[in-house]
Structures are given as C-alpha cells and as structure tokens.
Structure of HAD family hydrolase:
Amino acid sequence: MSFDVVIFDWDGTLIDSVDHIADSLELAARELGYPVRERQALRHIVGLGMEEALSQLWPGITREEMTQLREVYARYFFQRDTTPADLFKGVDELLETLHGGPMLAVATGKSRPGLDRALGSSGLGRFFPLTRCANETASKPDPLMLRQIVSETGASVERMVMVGDTIYDMEMASRIGMPAIGVTWGVHSEEQLAAHNPMAIASDISMLRELMASGGTRD
C-alpha cells in the first residue's frame, strides 16, 4: 500500500446512514415544533458536529433548545443500531484488504458515545485503532481532528489520506496539506467534492480499492 495512514469518515462513507440521520432530525423537529427543513438541507449537514449542524438548520436556537433537540434526535436515531447490513457494499472487503497494511483511522462528526456504539454493533471496530469525534476535538471542516491523528501517529501528512463523502472532509484535509479522496455514494456530489481539489474521486468501492493500492492515482 502506498499510504501509511488511511483516515475514513463514517456516515455516508463506510455506513449507509445519511437518510436515517435525516429522518431522525425531521422527527425530532416535528416532535418539538421546530420548522421542518427540506430533505436536502437535512442531508447537507451530515458530517458536521451536532452543534454545528443544528445551528445551521435552526439559526439562533439557545443552548437549552439545542440540548433538547440533541436528546430527542438521539432517541430516534438510537431506536435501531448500526449493523453489518448498514455497511455500503464492499466496505468490509476493502477494510480486510487494507488491514495489516496502513494504519486505519476514523475522523467523524459523530459523538464519542455514538461512534463507539456504531463501531461495536457494525463489527468494524477491530479495524480502527485510532478514532476522533467532533465532540472531543473540533467539528469539520476545522482540521484539528486530523492534526491530532497526525500527531498521534507520527506519520508524514503527505503519506496520509482522508477518505470522505462531504466537502467538509475535503476542506479539512486541504487546510493541512493532506491528500484526500472523495466518494460519491454519500452526501455531496462529484462536482461539489471536486471544487475542493481532492487527489481523486471514487464512484464505487472497487475504484476506491484501486486508488488505495496505487497511492491515489489510476492507470
């Protein structure tokens, strides 16, 4: 493998959870009497930390209102666990291929309790010795979580790669000079991802596997 460290986003990159997140946000808004946002707006904020996401969807909400929204959202979201059936097709085979090569890490907008629960219930926890969550560092696109992974691994930024489905993933990698690979099966389109100058964009898992093997280039 050509990379020393491969950092994956979680929702929309490894796990097909974007619609479940949007559904849970909509249900929480309806229960609490907040204006229901359009589906595209609910999907667009996936990848941000929850505070940043809620502030974008309902500007001006108070700290107390945000806490209540988070609690009701979590109740709906955790009505079902992430399971191996929620993995995008081919993700488990990709991670098995990479396992034992580059170090694998996760950088996500999820909370620590949410990610730990999902790592266990999805069966993917064994692949990721290093993870960072928005609630323990800073939300994307701030690159702090990537800086922390760089520091902890001691790897060169140029020998690392961020893999994600959102412009937030692409931007935070770009801000510290880290290569990035966008994937088109999650939140943002190929055109949106390309605007942030990733080294490559994968349209399916087999292409991503090829890019991992070749250091981000295709023959």
